[in-house]
Amino acid sequence: MILKNKLTRETLEISYTEFRKKFAKELQVAFESYRRTQLNKYSYNFKDDNSMEYNFYFQLQWNFNHFGNSNWYIENL
């Protein structure tokens, strides 16, 4: 996984497990933002949070980059 800093253009190459540990707070913020957005649009479509979380991680790169509030973005998985 390759991440890039928006401000310094620093590049970071880490594994998925390291990413989950290092960016746990940013992932939580991105997921909560995604969750609120999806519930406002399609509340009838999700039976529980597991299906919503699955959909979030299925498109992790786009969701992290657009719903997260981080100086880092995922350049490549």
What's the structural blueprint in terms of helices and strands?
Blueprint: E1 2-5, E2 11-13, H1 16-22, H2 24-42, H3 49-58, H4 60-67, E3 72-76
Helix pairs in contact: 2-4
Question: How would you concisely characterize the structure shown here?
Answer:
This protein is α+β, with helices and mostly antiparallel strands and 77 residues long. 57% of the residues lie in helices and 16% in strands. The model has no long low-confidence stretch (mean pLDDT 90).
Strand content: 15-25%
Instruction: Name the overall outline.
Output: elongated
- Helix/strand-derived class? alpha+beta
Give the number of DSSP strands: 3
Number of helices: 4
Radius of gyration: 13 Å
Main sheet?
Answer: 3 strands, antiparallel
What separation lies between the terminal Cα atoms? 4 Å
Read across the widest sheet, the strand sequence of neighbours is 2-1-3
Helix and strand succession?
Answer: EEHHHHE
Can you give the mean pLDDT?
A: 90
Taking pLDDT < 50 over at least 5 consecutive residues as the criterion, the unreliable ranges are none
The helix content, as a percent range, equals 55-70%
